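Support case: user asked for a sample of complex input and structure output to validate their parser. Sending the pair below.
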Amino acid sequence: MAEVKLKNVKKQYENGFVAVHDFNLEIKDEEFIVLVGPSGCGKSTTLRMIAGLEDITGGEISIGENVVNDMEPKDRDIAMVFQNYALYPHMSVYENIAFGLRLRKVPSKEIHQKVLDAAEILGITDLLGRKPKQLSGGQRQRVAIGRAIVRVPKVFLMDEPLSNLDAKLRNQMRAEIILLREKIRTTFIYVTHDQTEAMTLGDRIVIMKDGYVMQVGTPQELFNHPANLFVAGFIGTPQMNFFEARLDEEDGSYTADIEGYKVKVPQYICDELNKLETVPTRVQLGARPENLILDPTGENGIKATIRVTEMMGSEIHIHADCADGKSVILKVQIADLSDEEQIQLLAKKDISFTIRERTINLFSNTDGRNLAVPDAVPVPQEKNKLVYDGSEDADNKKKRNDQ
Amino acid sequence: MSAENKKTKFKSKSRRERVSRIIIYVFLTLLCLIWMIPFFYLIFQAFRGESKSMVTYVFPKEWSLNNFKILFNDTNFLSWYKNTLIIALFNAVLQTVIVLSVAYALSRMRFKGRKLLMNFMLILGMFPGFLSMIATYFILKLIGLTSENAVPGLILIYAASSGMGYYIAKGFFDTIPKSLDEAARIDGASRSRVFFRIIMPMAKPIIIYTIMMAFIAPWGDFMYASLISFGHEEAYNVAVGLYKWLDKEHINNYFTVFCAGGLFVSVPVTVLFMALQRYYVEGVTGGAVKG
């Protein structure tokens, strides 16, 4: 139950590799913050710096009233759940959970009660006598969470706690973490590379890339108004589509022209564009797959040829190539189509689609910033890659492995 | 027809396999026998009653316990044995503590010059220990730990150099996930508490291995032990003491007694190994982290 503040926090390793650049964040009391980003973006390093497991090279971290830069992990009053559980193998589940309390010299009666309470919350009361090796993955993760919640820490840190679980169990545990959070009102900092976890769990999400914070915001903000091309590409499955567009102005209103297809730019974006010193003429127009609408006549909008269709059950993902060779993905809700229309669609070769105008985002062609988001962070340029493509930078990975 | 063919092929393959196995087993049995010969020879000679000199045959003509009587009543063997046991016990404790601490520190902590230190120790370890023997002797002589005080002197020598044997233990600690240390540190444990409460219980096999190696080494050390004791018979260890009986002037009177002594030297080592081997076999890290 404390605020956590990170001011200009930096982490540089001895070989010169900078894992985190100038990280600034104020986490409110009882807030659930999710750090998300691709491998090697510095999210785990940031969490470990808050935990005290990594020294910080510059800046200041405070938990509650205390600056904790040089404080040992044990004195920070935090608890952490590790990706690989990190249970003490020679101790029973009970002892694993009680270990932290014993070190803090809590009277044994109280320990007993607290362990039972924590076990009750997590539904592991029957397992208290077992050793970790006798537990399944999900049960081990529960014990790891039990070990963390039993102390009622000021801050609860979770480092990809669900990554090692299978898909079904992960969904189940995700729901349980939401419930857990209702029961234990404390500050949560959660690291994941899974955007679904980030979107469903976080009050606010911090997106990172190459050690830089790309955007901090609520899940809706990130999804609807991504600050730059990287965020736009990272959040949302399938990925947002990007089109080269020309901006035409008329009386303070703008139209985006994609190879002759005109999209009216929403008023709120026009207002922001008008505040700019120079409005770029060429931009990237971003539209999510669900906001590309199939034209029933096949005449209007942008023409494309279907490459692959994926039947997802409740929706169909259409991978198509536009006339200029650019790939796009459309998401079509099946509930909107009759069986006959579905069959027709799956058999189709040539389609055309329009864009739902009010949902578009415009990004700078040079630095990838969202033109309608004030103070948006540009995409780090050194990698020469504006849009997230799911790959980890090989150079980055090598440097990390050198540590 | 084809089924029959297959059958024949199958049969011939299995026969070939069987023959190769028989050859392998015969070879291994022979190796075993060759390896066991010195042990049996030692036992037979220790119980030989007809003479005390070296003979050309193996099986005694007369079985007797006389050699053991001589060993315990008429020689300094018990005092050598006591010296060696004291050194071995001290060494087992000191070396284990030092080796495990050094190995854990090198495995877990990151400090300036860590790699340099490890490389330095590796290279230093490549030089035979006796290169520094003369220097060591004079240092020990200065502080009065030679001759009749050879026992504490030897304990000091073994303990002082033991940190260099950290490789195997470090290799073991490297396999224990770091996140366990980190979890314990967050739970409220200090570094030393992490070491003793979390890592040590998981490191049983390597503790046992280190204890055994540390305990066994002094029983076979000859060079340092003979130099440091420098002719003071009461300060000999078993290796130095027993070896004296193989001199030209002693061998005809002491050979069988030497064998009896050799037999006794193997007792504590065997007992220790038998007592500890069950811990040695299997680690206890199951379930700690995602496997």
